[in-house]
Design brief:
Subcellular location: Cell membrane
Protein name: MASE1 domain-containing protein
Strand content: under 5%
Organism: Klebsiella michiganensis
Order of helices and strands: HEEHHHHHHHHH
Mean pLDDT: 85
Number of helices: 10
Pfam families: MASE1
Number of strands: 2
Structural class: mainly alpha
Distance between the termini: 61 Å
Oligomer: single chain
Strand order of the largest sheet: 1-2
Keywords: Cell membrane, Membrane, Transmembrane, Transmembrane helix
Largest sheet: 2 strands, antiparallel
Radius of gyration: 20 Å
Number of domains: 2
Length: about 230
């Protein structure tokens, strides 16, 4: 019983450490632009990080995410207690609810085979339902409460193009960038998983029928990056 409790505490503390490091980093590297004179994210990567941490740690990530987001918000934005609680609710509620629904539908192994099994449920609830619900809660919060100018555009009625890009930034973060955080974090946390991952990956690259494909894939990737990044 005591050993089981110690394992739970260690998982929670490890998840908290990961959140404290990765949440500010994900905010920092999130791409942004200016529309109608207001700053907007093209992909809000903390959403990707939330899913990644939940897929790795499960329920042990809930409290660390709440604590880490609360501290990060307080560090970055000057908010009253009411504003801080509302912002925290808007950021986390939809993600927790979508994961709870997927857990209810798929059972205890809802986190297994992230990109191999039950993709439909994960894509719908995590990739579309949660981002839309997140935006709805922020809009409703903005109707009844005032927020600082730095973040007020996310809570109010803006132009059509601003709203579309705002919602798109959440959907793209959930669908595209979750694995961007999931696999590196899991490999950092578990060296055994990292060795197995790279062993399987390198084995597929070295297979005779895949060598030419791999070579051309890297050449095409380099060409695309060159075209997109050249001034």
């Amino acid at each position: 019983m005591l050993d089981h409790l110690n394992i739970k505490i260690k998982k929670t503390l490890l998840a908290l450490l990961v959140c404290f490091i990765a949440i500010p980093l994900s905010r920092f590297i999130s791409p942004q632009t200016i529309i109608d004179g207001n700053q907007i994210y093209l992909a809000w990567l903390p959403l990707s990080l939330m899913y990644s941490v939940l897929f790795i740690f499960g329920r042990y990530a809930v409290a660390p995410l709440i604590i880490a987001f609360a501290i990060t918000n307080a560090w970055i934005i000057d908010l009253t207690l009411t504003q801080a609680l509302i912002l925290l609710f808007c950021q986390l509620f939809s993600v927790f609810l979508s994961c709870a629904i997927v857990r209810f539908q798929l059972g205890r192994r809802w986190r297994a085979g992230l990109t191999a099994k039950h993709m439909g449920a994960r894509i719908f609830w995590g990739g579309f339902f949660a981002p839309l619900l997140l935006k709805v809660t922020m809009y409703l919060a903005g109707r009844f409460f005032a927020f600082p100018l730095a973040i007020s555009s996310y809570f109010g009625s803006m132009s059509v193009i601003y709203t579309i890009i705002d919602i798109q930034s959440l959907i793209s973060a959930a669908l595209i960038f979750t694995t961007f955080f999931y696999y590196p974090l899991r490999m950092i946390i578990s060296p055994r998983y990292a060795r197995a991952f790279w062993r399987n990956l390198c084995h597929s690259w070295r297979a005779g029928e895949q060598r030419v494909f791999t070579l051309y894939w890297f050449v095409a990737l380099a060409a695309i990056l060159l075209v997109l990044c050249t001034p």
